[in-house]
Amino acid sequence: MTAPDAAPRESPLLETRSLTRILPAVVPVTLVQDVSLRIGHSEFVAITGPSGSGKSSLLYLLGLLDRPSEGEIWIAGTETDRLSSSELAHIRLEKIGFVFQFHFLLPEFTALENVMIPMQRLGKLPPREQHEHAEGLLAGLGLEDFLNRRPEQLSGGQRQRVAVARALANSPDLILADEPTGSLDSVATEQVFESLQKIVETQQTTIIAVTHDMDLANRMERRVHLVDGRIDYDRKQ
Ligand SMILES: Nc1ncnc2c1ncn2[C@@H]1O[C@H](COP(=O)(O)OP(=O)(O)OP(=O)(O)O)[C@@H](O)[C@H]1O
């Protein structure tokens, strides 16, 4: 008999089981092979590996932007394989924030408006609260004096911090970042990295970041190293 107070085994935030992605072609291309990972809340994980080792492909799978050929992706205990594209889009909007190497901010909108866009799409907060939340997120990233600037009026590091604020807009459990500092100089890299670190420390958010920057990778808590689409090692550091 099970003890009545036995705690149920908690689902990890993200779990993959034997994830494989093969591009069908005359000669099929294996992007990701047999990747099994369990990632919890408040983790800061680097994905590293040589060029072409499948880092971005894995991140796209984890972000439900691409579908696996084989294997499973579980998000907060939900298996995603049988979900419709609109259900996947909803999970992405509500639970996952994305930061890419290039900020992809909308040029005609201000920093504040860019950060409000995901909140408008989700539609959970009334407009006044969206505005206040966006202001708070930008202030938290040191951008309180730049709320009404458009992307072209900001430095590269400031733009990328606006992109981080936008990724945080709907309070996601998970942020996926593909080379978030790849286009930045060393000062801006440090600012963006410290912003990410603060998010992991002060919120329950998990960040998984692809990076070529070994100094940054070594400062993250866990490193998943890929070679030829497979996990070469996965270690806490
Ligand atoms: N659409 C595609 N068609 C053919 N091959 C592809 C395609 N997309 C990716 N690949 C190949 O799949 C492999 C993995 O690519 P991916 O971009 O995931 O690697 P990566 O580790 O992120 O590389 P990098 O560090 O250079 O960005 C590479 O060999 C790449 O050339």
From TrEMBL:
Q: Which Pfam families match?
A: ABC_tran (PF00005)
Which intervals hold domain ABC transporter?
14-237
Q: Does the keyword Flavoprotein apply?
A: no
One MF term in GO for this entry? ATP binding
Tell me which UniProt keywords the record has, alphabetically.
ATP-binding, Nucleotide-binding, Translocase, Transport
State whether keyword S-adenosyl-L-methionine applies. no
Q: Per its UniProt record, what PANTHER family does this chain match? A: IMPORT ATP-BINDING PROTEIN, LIPOPROTEIN-RELEASING SYSTEM ATP-BINDING PROTEIN LOLD
Family as reported in the entry's similarity comment = Belongs to the ABC transporter superfamily.
Mind telling me what this protein is named?
ABC transporter ATP-binding protein
